Amino acid sequence: MTAGPAEVVVTGVGLVTPAGIGREATWEGVCAGRPTARRDPELDGLDVDFACRVPGYQPREHTPGGRPWQYDRYTQFALTAVTEAVADARLDPARWNGDRVAVVFGTAAGGTASQLEQHRTLLADGPGRVSPMLLPKYLPNMACGHIAIRLGARGPSLSTSTACASGATAIGTAWQLLRSGACDIAVAGSAEASVLPLWVAGFNRMGALSRRRADPATASRPFDVDRDGFVMGEGAGAVVLERAEDARARGCPGRAVLAGYGAATDAVHAVAPDPDGRGVTGAMRAALAAAHTPFEAVDHINAHGTGTPLNDAAEAAVIRRLFGHRPTVTSVKGALGHLLGAAGAVEAALTALTVERGIVPPVVNLRRQDPDLEINAVTGDCRKQRIDVAISNSFGFGGHNTVLVFRAR
């Protein structure tokens, strides 16, 4: 065990998103600039009847270990992503010291589908028909618990819930655990499966969703002058983190270095961003300070970029103010939709791949950039770019702001 701060590398990545099941399917989809929003039969009759679903997901095929009925859909996604990430890291849970493996996994909602299903059962058939599996499927910590059981991970484990920043918070917390010496391997990420009529209706009543029913594929438009809200999505992202010296010792250099983590809170409004961007600014400053990296060294920003009028304006203003050298900016929500609690982990994983591969995915559906948002957004095709330092922004209701810094290894 190595005590004290140490360099941390991403040795494994796993993804389940509306662009496809698996890391490479997702990467290819976002780089190709393919939007995934489409009409959703489960949302028939609602004012917003489209979303971004994970295509072709078969629980019996894609949930490791069988018996998928034990898990809510969000936990199924989590287990699929984690299994890929661990394999990508070339680690074998049967051979590692589980006492030194941590799991930090986030979600905004947990197993909401299971909760709603059993509530309907309670109302229709009475309490005697409620499933004894309700709580193990619904509770927001259960993806984390099932991951630990599946991997035999007996080190620290916890579930993070900071709304749409949950995944980034999980990864940052895992980074801290590794650097403190509390574990030798950390499996981190987040999952969400809340494309449900109740959630869609709630977000729509808030005015947060795009209402472009006539053309769902173009509905999510981060930083566009005609943006009118986000599109609901689902999925999971997972990373394996290790101290760099440990990874090198077993012949795995890692995909990218996770160099810094910062968090700050707006403390202004329950759901609207601080228009002055103080929390975002604080998170960026903290993350770059932890990474011992100046603002001018940042080559690329994976923005939160929801496509809502207020979020994009506040985020772009901070980027313009702090990064005068105009690093490239992308948001994958035009392609994937907003994955809510899973967004931060998926976007962090994609940022690590962007650093590793030197390719920036475009902002899908950004056709006319808002002239008030003076950022260097990548549009059209993906862009080849040498990236030594990149940051990934994740913000959530409640004023949560989380920033992760990645460096080339």
TrEMBL record:
Keyword entries, A-Z: Acyltransferase, Plasmid, Transferase
Domain of life: Bacteria
InterPro entries: Beta-ketoacyl_synthase, Ketoacyl_synth_AS, Ketoacyl_synth_C, Ketoacyl_synth_N, PKS_Beta-ketoAc_synthase_dom, Thiolase-like
SUPFAM superfamilies registered for this protein in UniProt: Thiolase-like
GO biological process per UniProt: fatty acid elongation
SMART domains in alphabetical order: PKS_KS
One Pfam family linked to the record: Ketoacyl-synt_C
GO terms assigned for molecular function: 3-oxoacyl-[acyl-carrier-protein] synthase activity
NCBIfam families in the cross-refs: PRK07314.1
Family according to the record: Belongs to the thiolase-like superfamily. Beta-ketoacyl-ACP synthases family.
Name of the molecule in the record: 3-oxoacyl-(ACP) synthase II
Organism from which the protein derives: Streptantibioticus cattleyicolor (strain ATCC 35852 / DSM 46488 / JCM 4925 / NBRC 14057 / NRRL 8057) (Streptomyces cattleya)
Organism taxonomic ancestry: Bacteria, Bacillati, Actinomycetota, Actinomycetes, Kitasatosporales
